[in-house]
């Protein structure tokens, strides 16, 4: 129940919703087409629009990002073991498990917060078939080092790019690295279709295979190839994506302003480390993570509690680590000694609110709380 007397909670993120009027003509179009799902005209239109916007050639839309991750592993016939990061949203590892594959956790790099290539290489066994890294917070992985490792050991690379919509690395879409990249269009992501996702792949033949897999493996009326699933995006989702796409430049600019304001006001605060993108990549401002280090007067959890008590719904992305959950903690690679950097970062990270509709006044209130609690504690 809502409580009107309490100050409204400021969420860490809020889905961007374009004016409803813009959505209505698309709905009318669906009613006119009488085509509600299964590779409909709007689905097709969104695939083309996204290819252009993102600068990629082949994209297959899905009903959500998790099914896209699961299907990506299926499409490449991955078995055995897959090396992945414990510092991500739990869906990354779930997708591996749902394929009957054993996830193997490797530690992250303390600067990028993405899989450390040296630790990937150390985790390879004769059963390893693929690597599933995550571009955490939209910050590119060391894609070149990962490519070299994959070539050396004949491994596939599937990037969980759920955070990386629109990110470019050395003038190239980050989605064009590896064998495949998987996007999520969930409501919490910077481009969303309420629920949704996609696989970006390298060639038309693979796209055809993915499109069949997401439609039960149906090839034609009498032929089913492989163990397909229902991962189709429907026309209402696609319509919403087309509307949303017209706003991505404006929402990106709004996020950039918020990011900059945080950086201006929080720069130089002792013990607060502001996460930065790689030099060669463009930011999408999907998240605003800070590391609360021991030099800060409060621990991460104390700062979290202070903000929460004042209705600021900051989040500890990603804490606990995936490797700490009961479903995965018994894996040999899940032991803390194997993941010291991820362990430490997950104890220090705090994501501050960032979304296009966040007002400057509210943002200043958040920053004031951070600064004031630090001063009060230090005194
Ligand atoms: C959101 C997210 C997913 C899952 O996407 P859904 O569309 O919610 O299924 C997977 N991996 C990461 C890193 C995510 O942030």
TrEMBL record:
This is dTDP-4-amino-4,6-dideoxygalactose transaminase. The lineage of its organism: Bacteria, Pseudomonadati, Pseudomonadota, Betaproteobacteria, Burkholderiales. Belongs to the DegT/DnrJ/EryC1 family. The modification N6-(pyridoxal phosphate)lysine is found at residue 189. One of its GO terms (molecular function) is transaminase activity. GO terms for biological process: polysaccharide biosynthetic process. CDD domains: AHBA_syn (cd00616). Keywords: Pyridoxal phosphate. Pfam families: DegT_DnrJ_EryC1 (PF01041). The active site is at residue 189.
């Amino acid at each position: 129940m809502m409580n009107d007397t309490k100050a409204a909670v400021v969420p860490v993120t809020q889905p961007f919703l374009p004016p409803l009027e813009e959505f209505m003509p698309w709905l009318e179009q669906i009613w006119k087409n009488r085509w509600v799902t299964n590779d409909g005209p709007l689905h097709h239109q969104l695939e083309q629009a996204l290819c252009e916007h993102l600068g990629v050639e082949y994209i297959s839309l899905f009903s959500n990002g998790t099914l896209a991750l699961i299907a990506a592993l299926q499409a490449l016939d991955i078995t055995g073991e897959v090396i992945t990061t414990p510092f991500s949203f739990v869906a990354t590892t779930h997708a591996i498990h749902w394929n009957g594959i054993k996830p193997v956790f490797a530690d992250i790099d303390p600067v990028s917060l993405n899989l450390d290539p040296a630790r990937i290489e150390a985790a390879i066994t004769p059963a390893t078939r693929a690597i599933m890294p995550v571009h955490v917070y939209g910050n590119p992985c060391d894609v070149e080092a990962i490519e070299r490792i994959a070539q050396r050991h004949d491994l596939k690379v599937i990037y969980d790019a759920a955070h990386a919509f629109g990110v470019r690395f050395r003038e190239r879409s980050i989605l064009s690295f590896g064998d495949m990249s998987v996007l999520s269009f969930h409501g919490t992501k910077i481009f969303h279709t309420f629920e949704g996702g996609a696989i970006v792949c390298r060639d038309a033949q693979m796209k055809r295979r993915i499109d069949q897999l997401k439609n039960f493996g149906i090839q034609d009326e009498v032929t089913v190839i492989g163990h397909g699933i229902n991962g189709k995006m429907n026309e209402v989702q696609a319509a919403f994506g087309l509307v949303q796409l017209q706003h991505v430049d404006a929402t990106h600019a709004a996020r950039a302003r918020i990011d900059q304001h945080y950086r201006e006001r929080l720069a130089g605060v002792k013990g607060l480390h502001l996460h930065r993108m790689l030099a060669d990549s463009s930011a999408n401002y999907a998240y605003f993570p800070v590391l609360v280090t021991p030099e800060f007067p409060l621990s991460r959890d104390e700062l979290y509690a202070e903000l929460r008590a004042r209705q600021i719904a900051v989040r500890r992305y990603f804490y606990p680590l995936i490797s700490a959950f009961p479903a995965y903690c018994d894996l040999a690679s899940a032991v803390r000694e194997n993941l010291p950097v991820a362990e430490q970062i997950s104890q220090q990270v705090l994501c501050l609110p960032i979304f296009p509709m966040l007002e400057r006044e509210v943002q200043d209130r958040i920053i004031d709380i951070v600064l004031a609690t630090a001063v009060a504690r230090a005194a």
